[in-house]
Amino acid sequence: MGLLDTFAAAYSYLVTHSDEFLGLLEEHLTLVLVSVGLAIVVAVPLGILATRNERAKSVVMSVGNVSQTIPTLAIIALVFPLLGLGFLPALVGLFTYALLPILTNTVAGLENVDESTVEAARGMGMTENQILRRIKLPLALPVIFAGIRTSAVLNVGTAYLAFFIGGGGLGVWVITGISLFDTPQLLAGAIPGALLAIGLDSLFALVEGRLSGESAAGQSPVSG
């Protein structure tokens, strides 16, 4: 079977199993978006805390580094006695894996804000919280979003592992296709995942651009 025939067979498999595909895609997308969303909620405040206290920074970055080095399946194995099989343990593993890129980029973005800009804001009487909200975060936004985009793309691929603990997602087709030497089924699960990663990266880039534009237009050191 030639390459074009293989892709045609994968497309045919996807079309003939479209209802199942939509269900798996929804599960996959939910795992990625919820895990990254939770990681943003946790990692951005921790990154802000880390820039304000060196001891906190050491602890936060150490925890972030550990979370990245532990394989997702190992995390799933650790939480399995508490959470069992299914969506939740897969979500915990993906959430843990998504933390570090967002955390490190938040710290880097905030710490790399030009100090002269910060000092000028202090000279105008702005408090540290005002400086954070109106100066540092808007300027650090592109770097923070780079971490979010990295986490989203990584988790699209990592979410395939949810299959092993009954978490669903496109890994059902990919792992089953590998086990059965069914290349069309494998590609029918893998290609949409690659397109999903590209799509999410583009979506977050668009959101970043909109937010950066609004921050530049609507905020200034001297505005109330």
TrEMBL record:
<dbReference type="InterPro" id="IPR035906">
    <property type="entry name" value="MetI-like_sf"/>
</dbReference>
<dbReference type="Pfam" id="PF00528">
    <property type="entry name" value="BPD_transp_1"/>
</dbReference>
<keyword id="KW-1133">Transmembrane helix</keyword>
<dbReference type="InterPro" id="IPR000515">
    <property type="entry name" value="MetI-like"/>
</dbReference>
<keyword id="KW-0812">Transmembrane</keyword>
<dbReference type="GO" id="GO:0055085">
    <property type="term" value="P:transmembrane transport"/>
</dbReference>
<dbReference type="GO" id="GO:0031460">
    <property type="term" value="P:glycine betaine transport"/>
</dbReference>
<feature type="transmembrane region" description="Helical">
    <location>
        <begin position="72"/>
        <end position="100"/>
    </location>
</feature>
<dbReference type="GO" id="GO:0005886">
    <property type="term" value="C:plasma membrane"/>
</dbReference>
<feature type="transmembrane region" description="Helical">
    <location>
        <begin position="160"/>
        <end position="181"/>
    </location>
</feature>
<protein>
    <submittedName>
        <fullName>Osmoprotectant transport system permease protein</fullName>
    </submittedName>
</protein>
<feature type="transmembrane region" description="Helical">
    <location>
        <begin position="29"/>
        <end position="51"/>
    </location>
</feature>
<dbReference type="InterPro" id="IPR051204">
    <property type="entry name" value="ABC_transp_perm/SBD"/>
</dbReference>
<comment type="similarity">
    <text>Belongs to the binding-protein-dependent transport system permease family.</text>
</comment>
<feature type="domain" description="ABC transmembrane type-1">
    <location>
        <begin position="25"/>
        <end position="204"/>
    </location>
</feature>
<feature type="transmembrane region" description="Helical">
    <location>
        <begin position="187"/>
        <end position="207"/>
    </location>
</feature>
<keyword id="KW-0813">Transport</keyword>
<keyword id="KW-0472">Membrane</keyword>
